[in-house]
Amino acid sequence: MCGIAGFLGRPGSAEALERTARAMADAMTRRGPDDAGSWADAEAGAAFGHRRLSIIDLSRSGHQPMASANGRFVICYNGEVYNAPEMRSELEAAGSVFRGHSDTEVLLESIALHGLDATLPKLIGMFAFALWDRERRELTLVRDRLGIKPLYWALFGSSFLFGSELSALEQHPDFTGEIDRAALTSFLRFNYVPAPQCIYRGVQKLMPGYRLTISAGGAPRIEAWWSLANVRDRGLAHPFEGSDETATDALDEILGDAVGKRMIADVPLGAFLSGGVDSSTVAALMQARSSTPVRTFTIGFDEPGYNEAEHAKAVAAHLGTDHTEFYVTAAEAQAVIPDLPSIYDEPFADASQIPTFLVSRMTREHVTVALSGDGGDELFGGYNRYFQAPSILSRTRRLPGPALRAGAGLIRSVPPARLSRLLAGVPRIGGIPMLGEKLHKIADILGRSPEDAFRALVSQWQDPDRLVIGGRETVDPVWKEAAGDLEGFAARMQFVDTLTYLPDDILTKVDRASMAVSLEARVPMIDHRVVEFAWSLPQHLKIRGGEGKWILRQLLCRHVPRDLIERPKMGFGIPIESWLRGPLRDWAEDLLSEERLRRDGWFDPAPIRACWEEHLSGRRNWQYRLWGVMMFNAWADRR
Fold first, then answer.
1. pTM (predicted TM-score)
2. Shared domain check, 222 and 198
3. Based on the domain organization, do 296 and 364 belong to the same domain?
4. pLDDT by residue (tens digit) across 454-500?
5. Are 310 and 579 in contact (CB under 8 A)?
6. How many independent structural domains does the chain possess?
7. For 296, phi and psi rounded to 5 degrees?
8. How far is Cα 200 from Cα 193, in angstroms, rounded to an integer?
9. Domain ends where: 175, 193, 226?
10. Which residues are marked as active site?
11. Which parts of the chain register pLDDT below 50?
12. DSSP string for residues in 156-214
């Protein structure tokens, strides 16, 4: 796992070009503390910089940037190709000779022998890389299918820049850091900047499954090399037709192989374990393939409603893993907050960024690689909105508008915390975590169309155009594509989430948190073969009886007793709501003060101040809305 950076621009001396490339890469030292390298083609004005976290082949044979044996290609690569051993055997049979045993060299020699077009479909892994073709004098950027690894690019005048983080691009002398108000508007809706947008004008994220090719003085050519829409369409055209048992067997084989491939490393390895279905499944499949106890890691909190450590401990005990847990105090969690703008590089405001960083930091004290369960919710229908929202809309669609508005108003009139207390003893719903918050979400979707309801459910500020001065939100074509093209509201939500929320929030959160402590996080649940299998499954194998991830639960129950995992879904969070009214109040007030908001000129202070005052009074919980504004302002201060 590494940090990559580089540029294509004006010709110059190799020494000067490499100096700039090294400065870009060194801005990401935490992504690669083990080795550094640079390369330049002085005549073409191309240069690469690389920081390496050594995972496979710890010797100098894995040093980057790396040139192919025939001298035609140079690669600057971030990621892991898990089927590199099989690919290497095929290449050796065809006459390729290797200097070391890194997956970088396997990828490079496959491109040299077969070409990029033929190589990409073979890859099982996560990656973002830059490839320079000396013969054609072309630079190509490639990002993995699901967007596990990040890749930014920009064209400033005659300079084309790229890097794993914005911090790398900022080191180039041609970089200009003007805030894009349209991207800021989108950020306030989602609490992340959706791809291909970037917080800086003129900078973009390369979309998952895409490649970009550019020659000196030319315009970028961008095209998809893998498409989730194609996977979806093939799955619908050729659905899995076996029984529940054979479907579970098939998932066991495919996901088990994905997990097994991600257990190959030349450094210590373990797994995050929250005690939920996804991470427990990954840990169980790891332990089933290991002759020694697998290392598992979790963090706990003393605050009620936020602690999953006891569940994780019970699962670990049953599986027989070598389990480590760490209980975090409020003070320890709050101490991370000042560092969040530099850890996440671009404005990012999913509050679970804090526990994700804390568990990564604790895990890195013991291992260098950790497997994660991320992606199971999107693929197998795990989010509550996938089955609750369609049910609510179906049951209320015949009710007259005035009745729906009255019901929504009644729910909103009671603060979420009080709603949770009032309904605590009600059968079936009283024990749902954050029940009041979820009822307020329900109030927000009553009377809406399915697509509008989904957008409301995943939005923090429902009208961000009103907040950002001069901001105008762009319409994402992904939302248009999903609307009506896919039978079933839940399936449409899963499709959009996999293209947006998964790479731009979940995977971004894990990548930045783990890389901040030089930990490689691997995500077997979104191996593209698992993704393809999941989209071939009928919905009743994912959502059944008002519960998501049905088939994953069946698989997990082959390894863990059902009573250890059957409980309401919990988010991976911390009590930001109460902290903002308590120990974080002064910090928040400084970031949300009317004077500051007017001085900075990004936001209309009135709606933000109204939310802040409502939050402080306890009438509403606006923690996520406010967190977004505060994280942007904190990021702007750091920049």
1. 0.94
2. yes
3. yes
4. 888 899 999 999 999 999 888 666 666 655 555 688 899 999 999 99
5. no
6. 3
7. -125, 150
8. 10
9. 226
10. 2
11. none
12. ETTEEEEESSHHHHTTSTT----B-HHHHHHHHHHSS--TT--SBTTEEEPPTTEEEEE
